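Dear colleague,

Following up on Tuesday's group meeting, I ran the structure prediction for the three-component complex that the binding team flagged. I've pasted the input sequences exactly as they went in, so you can double-check that nothing got truncated or mislabelled along the way. The structure tokens for the whole assembly follow below. Feel free to forward this to whoever is handling the docking comparison.

Inputs:
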Amino acid sequence: MSSFNKSSVSCSSEDDADQQQLRRGPWTLDEDSLLIHYIARHGEGRWNLLAKRAGLRRTGKSCRLRWLNYLKPDVKRGNLTPQEQFLILELHSKWGNRWSKIAQHLPGRTDNEIKNYWRTRVQKQARHLKIDANSTAFQNIVRCFWMPRLLQKMENSSENSAVSQSLDQVASAQHQALMTLQQQVAGQGPGSEAVQNLENQEQNSSDSEHCASSCVSSSESMNNYNNISQISQFADYQSSPFQIVGNSDYNVTDAKDCYYVNDDNNSNTGCYDMETINQLASTSALGDFANPVGDCHMAENNWVGDGFADGLWNMGELWDLRNLQ
DNA sequence: AAGATCGTCAACCGCCATTAA
DNA sequence: ATTAATGGCGGTTGACGATCT
């Protein structure tokens, strides 16, 4: 932490003297307490002034950051749920590194946290695969492997692990699925478009529902959302987590933290939130979605876990897959 | 057991947009 | 209209604990 405690050159002016006294680095409990109590009494804003009046030898920016990212009461801590991870992946595919915008759709999560998640978990996988995290190939891998796994995980958790598969079954299913994938990919031309081709092949399949259940594809992911919406049609509309609304973009309402998702073709717009996704995961219909059958069928429960790096990508097998590209 | 390496995440930095004077 | 202050955002850094060798 020594690098944070640089002392500035002494100066006669008052401002510079203040600067010299500014603290950096990790916040102490006392500082946290000062900030919390001051904001409780006077509210947020005017951060530079706040810092001075609260007796904090910190920059206004530092105070703001500490409050927004850590001290604010509604800041959620702990591991991101599969639902949250799913949303991050989906929203990032749509908006890119617009962390703040993405964070608006994950109540209690900060842009910093989401950014850290992306860099430490998602980009790491891209690095291991030696693929650019922004490449189409990687995005397709995310859609075809990661997101369905998250949905599966959501479903599994919603079932309270009542139904458990044996490890042998899981390993066998995944192995079989991978073999299928590899066969498909091997049949494609060279280059990083292999997975894309695979996905296209899926999309060109005559069985559109099968396709939808196999990949969560980005520009096409909205179609899958529509599939979810279709699924919702089977439910009682009063209690359905989806609502049809006229919004043309992702949006969030203060009242319900509800996500309005519209596809690019201006058809159905689904409104859903974390709870919604949870509910969906518990439906048998989504079960099909979350448990892809056929060409992209992967069934390893641990692919998506609290520790992403552990079993999520099954790196060796993805390596094989990548090498076939 | 100890050093090296890795992963996570809080915090900082610089830039830009907005607002107030 | 201009300028300084402030707020917000995305990128980056570095401390520290965990894991590996």
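Chain A is about 55% helix and 0% strand.

Cheers,
M.
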